[in-house]
Amino acid sequence: MTEGDTLIYYFIGRFARKTGLILFEFNLLNTMRLFILLIALTFITACSGEPRLDTSSPERMQASTEALRNSLPEDERDAFDEDFMLVAMEKADLGALLLQLFLGDFSDDEVPEELFRQLPEELNGLSAADIREQAVELREQQRQRQLAQVLQEIEELEDKLRHAEQMRASLAAVEVSRSRFFKHDDGFSTRPIIELTVKNNTEHAISRAYFRGTYQTPGRAVPWLTDTFNYQISGGLEPGETQSWSLAPNVFGDWGRLEVRDDAVFTVETIRIDGPDGEPVYDARGLDEFEERRLRRLREQLENLE
User: Fold this and answer.
1) What is the distance between the alpha carbons of residues 137 and 87, in angstroms, rounded to a whole number?
2) Structural element, H or E, at residue 139
3) What whole-number distance in Å separates Cα of residue 231 and Cα of residue 196?
4) In a domain? residue 280
5) Which end of the chain is more exposed for a tag (fewer CB within 10 A), N or C?
């Protein structure tokens, strides 16, 4: 194994540990091609005086790699590796080169030369200080892009919450005047039953209504169950009309597994109604569980980015 080969394997280990990159094992040849591509990006050269990058040939880059790294204090070399990888990957068209490697557009012997053609001329002649300066600028640009994206997503989710609050006020006109949960034993099986009495005080005919039911013991902070259900209304529910329904949830679902308790109360709120065309008239469902978690995480990220 030559000194150059030893250096290549050294950087393979450094890059894999720093990035956690997972390489797809198409086969041994393709894996080595990807290694060669990624490692070649870390090659630098020392010119007369202060060591600088020299992308003029593979030989010069490889010959000067150790010289430039050794010119830095040991406690700065890890940061330099990260800075250089960031700058090189930002400027080089790695996507096109990876695709060419995968498609086999050139042989293993052609990889280094092809890589150098992909590296922009502006990398040539950079010093360690230049690389650090560019890396700081790139990280700030990344932070600004991430901040803009986080703010945009937060605004969209909060808009959805505000819209749900507005719809909830309108849905108060769909009055659930009676709600009961119990289980019926017909001698063969025990089935969950939800009984509702609903009055439509809106100006819209309702073809389907959606509800959120909560089964909770007063004084307990956590309900026994909170879940949604809906009902397709045969003939609809006209404005000013009141109907009573007996619904049978899935016996194998959450309502079927729920234990009936003598100290629990079943409350129901309307969260959406559809008109005669099947389209939502009012929808106050707000955020689902994933969106609620996402909003919390985004708010945490915002604190770190600002």
Assistant:
1) 10
2) helix 128-171
3) 11
4) no
5) N
Give residue-wise pLDDT tens across range 242-269.
999 999 999 999 999 999 999 999 999 9
pTM over 0.70: no
The answer to whether residues 23 and 103 belong to one domain is yes
Show the domain range for 297. 147-169+292-305
Q: 301, exposed or middle or buried, with CB in 10 Å at 0-12, 13-18, 19+?
A: middle
Total domain count for the chain? 3
- Within-domain flag for 253: yes
Q: Which of the listed residues 126, 160, 184 is the one where a domain comes to its end?
A: 126
CATH code of 270's domain: 2.60.40
In terms of domains, do 7 and 118 share one? yes
Please state, in angstroms and as integers, the Cα–Cα distance from residue 11 to each residue in 16, 85, 111, 157, 229, following that order: 8, 11, 17, 43, 57
Q: Distance between CA 240 and CA 262 in Å, rounded? A: 34
Per-residue DSSP letters for 211-262?
EEEEEE-TT-SS-SEEEEEEEEEEEEE-TT-EEEEEE---TTSHHHHPPP-T
What whole-number distance in Å separates Cα of residue 293 and Cα of residue 272?
Answer: 22
Based on the fold, state whether residues 184 and 159 are members of the same structural domain.
no
Around Cβ 231, how many Cβ atoms within 10 Å?
A: 17
Q: pLDDT tens digits, residue range 6-19?
A: 444 444 445 444 44
Q: pLDDT of 46-84, one tens digit each?
A: 344 678 877 777 677 666 666 777 788 989 888 888 888
C-alpha of 204 from chain center: 38
